[in-house]
Predict the structure.
Amino acid sequence: MKGRSLARHIKEGGKNIVRNGWMTFASISAVTVMLFVVGAFLLLIMNVNHFAKSLEEDVEVRVFIDITATGDQQEELLTELESLEGVENVEFVPKEEGLDTLIESLGEQGDIFETLRDENPLNDVFVVQAEDPQETDLIALDIEELPHVENVEYGKDIFDQLFTATDLIRTVGLILILGLMFTAMFLIANTIKLTIIARKREIQIMKLVGATNGFIRWPFFVEGLLLGVLGAVVPVTILSYGYASFYNSIGVQTGLDFFQFLPTTPLVFQMGSLLMAIGAFVGIWGSMMSVRKFLRV
Amino acid sequence: MIHMKDVWKTYPNGVMAINGINVDIDKGEFVYVVGPSGAGKSTFIKMMYREEKPTRGDIIINRNNLVKVKERHIPYIRRNIGVIFQDFKLLPNLSVYENVAFAMEVIEESKSNIRRRVMKVLEIVRLKNKARFFPHEISGGEQQRVAIARAIVNNPSVLIADEPTGNLDPETSWEIMHILEEINERGTTIVMATHNKEIVNTLRKRVIAIEDGRIARDEVKGDYGYER
């Protein structure tokens, strides 16, 4: 395509946007609503994923060593743990250290345990970290089979619940997004159809004098693209500013180090460009859908 | 130039519009196509610029077979065939100049080429002084001249006219005919469907009469032959 034609197509496409007033407004609104929901879900899902990730990194298996085990037997167990498949790292926590942590975590009430210093009832513990947090439960089962292991503990339950919740949010989000996407696409296709009907004579003459289908299609491509991108402006702006002010007021100070929101940048830029891309895609697709029918010779 | 070989056309609703037509039209000829309404004249004309596709047979214009050509090549074939209609088909919100230039813009000609060529064809149809007017500001005859200018601006070798004088009074019709004759003298082949008995009988050319989808008569310097 030649440069001056591109300028012409953009001008024509822009003209149609203005000419179709209310239908343009309806299509852009549909895209806006759709992208608003998409964007909100996107921010939610990305944050939930982020929580899940940071929690996952804390997943560990606590292996309580049989009190009767000798030093050699403990060494033996350590080598066996380290050679297990999927194990990333094994750390030894002697019972004295375990008691310190316990007393510390209980604060003032912990003082009563100070008396236990001489006959510590706790076990020595190996803390095992899995390479893939999702496989923690399998590794825990393997460890239970090993000799000199009294007990195995891990916090998989929380994760299972967390992942169920994330999956649910994803599924609901996806269904909602797809439904809205089709609505928006349908409205855009209808808007473009109006343009085409309004320009039927023009298209007929274009075909008579030998314009190619590609040439005829371009302004509608531009119109669809504009509808989609214009529809993305409002949700991207609102969601970006909204998230930024939310993050600045609450996000940074949740007080829990595993419960951190994603910082505003680059999150809003990722979200923004994705919404723009979805808007453009929906707009172009809707437009091409209605043009195709009209261009059959 | 134009060869039709055993052409048949049946519409999807069962109407048999053209029933086996063989015609040869040479380069530079001026041909009237006459016949009663509903005899297939319109279909005959429409097949020449590939608005309709024959059910059977071949139509060859400038060595291109309009029946076998691929969809995407049709635009390039149309650039070599100018068409004008009874209702002019001008774009109302474009000026005379823009209406003619439009035909060159959509095939992506350069601006300087467009300017030079449009002014030249407006001179041929004697509308140079009305280039800035809009279609509703000029007479029917002038509008048809704009349509002619648009049809010939890309230098087609064939000009197809579907009842070009159908909406015009006798005096204006003659104006149009003189312009068409002039264009014909410059070497453009002209095929014109018409009901205008006076014109056919006065400005004698080859006459092809179509009745019941067949060629009933094909005479050099023929006459209209129907009462009306």
Observations:
- The radius of gyration of chain A is 31 Å.
- The longest strand of chain A covers residues 87-93.
- Chain A has two domains: 3-55+160-295, 60-154.
